[in-house]
Amino acid sequence: MTTTFEPATSREGPAPRPPGRIRSGVRAGARYPYWFYLPAAVVYLVLFIVPTVVSFFFSLTRWRLIDWEFIGFENFVMFFREAALVTGLVNTLIYGVLTSAAKVVLGLLLAVLLTSNIVGRDFLRSMVFFPVLVSTVGVGLTFEALMDPFGGVINNALEAVGLPGPGWLTNPSYALLSVALVDIWKGVGLATVIYIAGIVSIPREYFEAARVDGASAWDNFRYIILPLARPATTTVIILSLIGGLRSFDLIWTMTGGGPGFTSDVIASVIYKQYQAGFYGLSTAGNVVLFVVVTAIVVPLFWWLNRKEAEL
Amino acid sequence: MNGRTRPRPRRLAVLVGAALLLSACSAGSLGSSSDSGGGETLDFLIGNDESAVALGEALVEAFNATNQGVTVTLETRPGGSEGDNVVKTRLATGDMADVFQYNSGSLFQALTPQQQLTPLTGEGWVSTLQDDFRSSVSAGGEVYGAPWGASLGGGVLYNKPVYERLGLSVPTTWAEFMANSAAIKAAGIDPVVQTYGETWTSQLLVLADFHNVAAAEPGFAEQYTAGRVKYATSAPAIKGFQHLQEVHEAGYQNVDFASAELEDGLRKVATGEGAQYPMLTSTVIQMVANNPESAQDVGFFALPGDDAATNGATQWLPAGIYVPQTTTGAKLEAAKTFLNWVTGPDGCEVARTAVPPTGPFATAGCELPADVPAAVADFAGYVDDGRTSPALEFLSPVKGPALEQITVEVGSGIRSAQDGAALYDDDVRKQAQQLGLPGWD
């Protein structure tokens, strides 16, 4: 739009634009014409909006890649009848909440430790962050070998001190928890870094004032760090919860959802439907996953942010 | 300043343009060079497992040496469900190789052959195919595939020295099998080897029991395809799930059954650490490669059912070689030339010698070599006696994808046989609906 107004003079070249011509009242801060947005809009439309709409459509069909048949909500009905889905749904919640909670607690404690004056602080910081950098599939395969009940390093070590090691990944009661444990190990570094940033940004004056008032280390933690690191807590909870709810790669490489269906989560159930060639059904599963994650994260985000504003 | 900086992006644009032009040129010249060479080049997609690659390389090398104006090049893909997706996606996007190898039976049916593959019914070699194989690569009255390699048997690999030492004989009923297992356990040997670290291996007690199902209930496959009989409610069909549960409850499995892998299982049965391993004869190659003495020491018997009189083995038919509809014109002719050679005596000779055969072949006149391992010879004996049935997946397009997880659960005591069979029936229903079969809505 604006291009039609301004360019005539500006294109002529050297003559500077008279200040009076800047129509600040109408489009404050808009330096660029609207069509500058076009490339980004096209990319966003083609790569995000179109596939999303299309996937909502295909979730209502029996899809064979080469053709499809419209079947209404039958895929959703079938997906909810899927025996593994109930286990998957419960497991997803357990996994998401467990890993998220552990990352918050451990991340905060590690961050407090790593912002205090300890020897080798920088080295320890990189140590904690290191697992984040390693490929998830690599971590999964490594831990699968380490957790092997017969001849795996972990159980051999336990045996050496006289403890019987469980079948970490083969016992239906432990499989999901073992994977969650590895997920926490791998993800706590990121939570720690976010907390470190949060703690470091707390103004020193608070601590100095607290020292004058004779506050203990615990008081510092309880009344300064904990409330003022709240934005960091919000970020860590949201990020790790979303990550946990849609977690797939680690579970898939470590147990494949097994033994049987006992460590299946929604994402692995969906993946298996896709693998089996049930494309419409797995798309419906993705829509369900989208709704579940949104239904949990959006209210949580709103609630956490509201609390933050109240502070 | 403007004047000096501007040429740079322009030079960059020229460079990019030139690069685009160059790449366009090379792609074009690649395409034309194969045409102008006089011969035709065929791209042949096969699975990437060791024996498939060995067979593929031997076939291609021998065929290219015959100089029929066709040069075949190999391309490999992953196996298992990942491979299924590669094949389905490439077919759907019109990006399939000129010729490709893939399972026959239910997985072949899932490719919607009428819409995606070229019928080969008119080819001369079709008449030499065995009936079971021909129907496993047929859809809507047309034949779509040539046999790839040998068939294989599903049953029990057993350690002969252990059997001899304990004075046992090959069981022909399930009761005998359990009695043998009790004697083996008393001798301190694992009676039934199970390896759920590789989940597919858990399905054998169910899938290889199909000969017994078919013997007890003729016409099961058609009824099953039509959705009129179910595993959970058919007395012969549910037996496989029950056997799995019985074996677990009797404590006949090796102690590391939950984490052991195929290789461990083969080692156990080869060395006598375990006595009986429900398995496919396709694994014999790997077993013999790792434990040469197992070529004589390990035999094969059919999974026993209730009736000794109808005792027999379940046979897995060879995979097929198919031509997608995207292969046309001169390429299609070249593909037919290749398939004609593969199914002929020369192709048979290569298949017999390049890899150790796992069972009888599907073309008439193509015989097994004399020196095959004992387990394969035992299985061929069942075929010669006519005591085999094709596995259900070759008679019916209906096969559920989650069977391996279900059998792991039943075999680990997580789920009962009845529950497992019912769950499998639900699983199968999805597959039938996806295929658009009547009687499943």
Automatic annotation (TrEMBL), chain A:
The chain crosses the membrane at residues 34-58, 104-120, 127-147, 174-202, 223-244, 278-304. It is a multi-pass membrane protein. Residues 1-22 are annotated as: Disordered. InterPro entries: ABC_transporter_permease, MetI-like, MetI-like_sf. Keywords: Cell membrane, Membrane, Transmembrane, Transmembrane helix, Transport. It holds the Pfam family BPD_transp_1. Coiled coil: none annotated. It is found in: Cell membrane. Gene3D superfamilies: MetI-like. Residues 89-300 form the ABC transmembrane type-1 domain. SUPFAM superfamilies: MetI-like (SSF161098). Belongs to the binding-protein-dependent transport system permease family. This is Sugar ABC transporter permease.
From TrEMBL, chain B:
InterPro entries: Bact_solute-bd_prot1, SBP. The keyword Signal applies. SUPFAM superfamilies: Periplasmic binding protein-like II. Residues 1-27 form the signal peptide. Keywords: Signal. PROSITE patterns: PROKAR_LIPOPROTEIN (PS51257). Transmembrane segments: none annotated. This is Extracellular solute-binding protein. It comes from Pseudonocardia humida.
